[in-house]
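hi! just following up on the protien thing from before. the input was this:
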Amino acid sequence: MLLIEPTVRACFNAKKYGVDNVICGHINDEDFNSNILDSCLMLDVIEHIESDIDALKCINDKMKKGARFILAAPAFQSLWSSLDVEGGHFRRYSIKGLNAQFKKAGFKVIYKSYFLSFLYFPILLVCFLEKLGLVKKCNEINPKEKHKKIKGRSSAGKLTIIILNILNAVERICLRCKIKIPLGSSVIFVVEK
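and the predicted 3d structure came back as:
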């Protein structure tokens, strides 16, 4: 496994957690030859890249014929909030839009679905409340409040975590069985060169 990461801090963290092959750089650096990747995994990265189509074409160029590429990204522009702005996102994706980008970049789409469906409506509600000014935007929250540690968990909090874990497990089964989920806060694609 090889990790290509542009930030030094993330490279050190990867090494710390056992990733041996770490390169601090970008996939489009000239040091990387064409047709070298057997597979590629990009999780919550593409939304941070201004020209996503150029990035996808670059990855296609670096992949061997028949190589697979798995990508996950935030879904639905309707879920756009100050969290996206603070996170440095340029966009959120629909299946239709990302499908078109993959085809333009020369990939064959094998599987596509939304996931984290149980988060869609809660996030939509928070976005709506943020737009109404009933919930603070990220940049309006005191930095000390953002990093407050919660001491102990209430039984309601523990129950919420159990329910979310169960819903997540059910969704993972659906994804493994290649069942398409019609709605979610994220999108996943499996494509092939």
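The domain at 33-192 is CATH 3.40.50.150 (Rossmann fold).
The longest helix spans residues 155-176.
cheers
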